[in-house]
Amino acid sequence: MSRLSEGTLQRAIVFLAALGIGVAAHIAIADANSGSPVCLGGGSGCETVARSSWSHLAGVNIAVFGVIGYALLLATAFFADDLARFAGFVLALGGFGYSVFLTYVELFKIEAACEWCLASAVLMTILFALCAARLIVFAGAPEASPERA
Amino acid sequence: MNGGDRRSRLLRLAAGAAFLALAAVLVLIVITAAGSGDGGDTNIEDKAAVARLLDGIPQRQMTLGDPKAPVELIEFGDLQCPVCATYSEEVLPEVMETRVRKGKVKIDFRNLTIIGPESVAAGAAALAAGTQGRGWSFVDLFYRNQGDENSGYADDDAFLKAIAKAAGVRNLAKWNAERAEMTTKVEETSQEAANLGFDGTPSFAIKGPQTGGIKLLGFPESAGDLEAAIEEAH
């Protein structure tokens, strides 16, 4: 059975983090234009969530923090050492935990579902699984030359 | 340190971080669930959202928008009415952005109290906030923090004061003193709505250059319906 290489994990992380940047940037740009992302499936869930007080933290749209988080995650995938593996894990863990909390808020407090936010939560969940797998399997491995992801 | 030791240390650190993250998320959820309940309490939600929605739009008495706007949309609402709350959150914001903010229409909120006596006290509190230019902030925040109908929250002094404070009413003593005087006005607009034939909330009417007086809209189901009525009234 062929074993999953760290390079494959890194490429998957780069791909998903880039997708995450796109999703979070879309929400942040819609907010900056005094609007809200349009739910592709119809309905007003995205607008309801975007207009709720939960959409901002200290006056900043939380999607902006999402863009930063995904960008940092993407950066960790370009290095193949323990620092990058651990930093990626911690970032993805924080993003995953916050996504779980926000999904709870969305469904049970705001009582609306925004598919863009849910898409981001799914991406962050997969990224957390990949980063955790990367750390568990490759932690302590000799430092490899930087991967082209 | 060899690779095995480093690996072992990293995995222990990761396990600790995962445990802390799990605990943090659980604590956040428990605090959030216990913090505000289902509305009708003094922990006022959506202050930032309402402030953003109304930011930069003039408020005078219970009128939102440019006082010189050629068209006046009149909303008859009951602050305890859940349909009004949904309408306020899902339909009116679009009209505010596309028409009110651009000075094409102003919206006048008038009380039509149909749910119970508590609605009169709530409506009077909104009118008192209106004298300080915070009427719409009060109404929108009230809607977003509604409790169960006639459950005792809507005329609760602490709740109304919390809404007024969150709405930005500066002189709370003046607001408190004026509330009682506003009851008559609430009853007057309720009677006005009844005279127009309205018996449900929210109900809308419109006045503009093309309407030839007041035109009854009833319950326009979407922002598009309202926008069309506003265009026709111009």
List key phrases describing it.
heterodimer, A: 149 residues, mainly alpha, two-stranded antiparallel sheet, 5 helices, elongated, B: 234 residues, six-stranded mixed beta sheet
Mean pLDDT of chain A: 86
Largest sheet properties of chain A: 2 strands, antiparallel
Helical fraction of chain A equals 55-70%
- One letter per element, helices H and strands E, the order of chain B comes to HHEEEHHEHHHHHEEH
Span between termini of chain B: 79 Å
Largest protein interface? A-B, 34 and 32 residues
**Can you count the beta strands of chain B?**
6
Annotation field: number of helices of chain A: 5
Low-confidence stretches of chain B are none
**Strand share of the residues of chain B?**
5-15%
Neighbour order of strands in the largest sheet of chain A = 1-2
What does this protein look like?
- The complex is a heterodimer of chains A (149) and B (234).
- Chain A is an all-alpha fold and 149 residues long.
- Chain A contains five helices and two strands, in the order H-H-E-E-H-H-H.
- Chain B is of the alpha+beta class and 234 residues long.
- Chain B has helices at residues 3-36, 47-54, 82-90, 92-100, 117-130, 135-144, 157-167, 172-179, 183-196, 223-233, and strands spanning 59-60, 63-64, 71-77, 105-111, 203-207, 214-218.
- The model of chain B has no long low-confidence stretch (mean pLDDT 90).
- Chains A and B meet through helix 2, helix 4 and helix 5 of A and helix 1 and helix 2 of B.
Short description:
The complex is a heterodimer of chains A (149) and B (234). Chain A has 149 residues and is mainly alpha-helical.
What's the structural blueprint in terms of helices and strands?
The complex is a heterodimer of chains A (149) and B (234).
Chain A: H1 6-32, H2 45-51, E1 56-57, E2 60-61, H3 62-76, H4 82-110, H5 115-138
Helix pairs in contact in A: 1-3, 1-5, 3-4, 4-5
Chain B: H1 3-36, H2 47-54, E1 59-60, E2 63-64, E3 71-77, H3 82-90, H4 92-100, E4 105-111, H5 117-130, H6 135-144, H7 157-167, H8 172-179, H9 183-196, E5 203-207, E6 214-218, H10 223-233
Parallel strand pairs in B: 3-4
Antiparallel strand pairs in B: 1-2, 2-4, 3-5, 5-6
